[in-house]
Input
Amino acid sequence: MSSLCLIFFITKIRALPLSLNSYADRWIWGADKHGLFTVKSAYHVARSLILTEDSDGPNPSASLWNGIWTAQVPSKVKICAWKACANILPTRSRLSERGIDIDTHCPLCEEEVESPLHALRDCSVASEALSIAQFAPLSVVTQQSSVHEWLLSQVSHLSKRSFSALLMLIWAIWRNRNSMVWDALSKPAVEFVPLTLGWWEESRIVHATPTKLPRSHSQKWKKPGLGFIKLNVDASFHQASGTAGLGGVFRGSNDSFLGGFFEFKTSISSAKHAELLTALLGVQLASFHSLVPLLVESDCMEIVQATKSNQLDSSDLGFLLADFRQAMHTASAAILYHVCRSANTVAHLLANEAHSHQRMFDFFTVAPSCVKEALTHDCNDF
Ligand SMILES: [Zn+2]
Output
């Protein structure tokens, strides 16, 4: 274990981007993408640690929570089901257990103690409602001692749609029980079951997400304005090995290929790290080879936004971002734009080439064969 921990830290340290400029050391909160400490992110770290320690395998309740929160039902229905499973639905037995002096008999049948399972499944009105909607025969499911156990067994064998319908019924059964307690009015199951399920079906149709129409054409690369040089950059990143391929291409306003580069890199911490490193390398090369005035295009929105604001300044990429900004300034105040992937094909191919063949750094003025075809078909300007 100690050697595993050591490898983890060594990998992390190796992946820290270094800067040629001297910046003061500072604390970075790794659990936040901007490097800033928040109570919310600390809560998530603590929670994931507890979950990892507690579980020797997959958490069996995870499928139930997932089933509830992703069910196709209104939020109030999900909350009702969650309360029942967490054993905090205020049935009379639960109120009594919490020290409230109350008659624990079921307000509907007045025969049994009103536990959550009785109220939602076993009471005569509840069981009639479930059988009208043709949910599992109750004889099969009576071994369970809590709503949590009952719904856990249901979520594993019902379809998503049927499980959602079951949650709707549970909510309707609880609402009917509350009308009895507060207004002394309860409806028979034959009345509220079709009403509830009918209303649910209608709302499902209204809220159904329209299917997206495919785009008729994808955007292509565009030539820069007269006198400008355009640099397109892209990176391909492999999380498990911490490796990346960097690729970039320089083209002029007449669509001419002016140069390109690629490089295989190890000790890369994230896709953002790889994208930022590529952009920095590209802009440094532009200054070195006097490929200015320069427009830079990247398909990584996060890098573009971070460069224009201060978003990554406090993260582990902060120094690299500062270097990149300075390099942009040095390259005759280059300008950075976001571009969609379909307009960044050549840089993408170069990054892939570097990654898949582990290419050493190379700057070339003759286009390699892997991008020749893309260079001819890439542009939609004539
Ligand atoms: Zn009852």
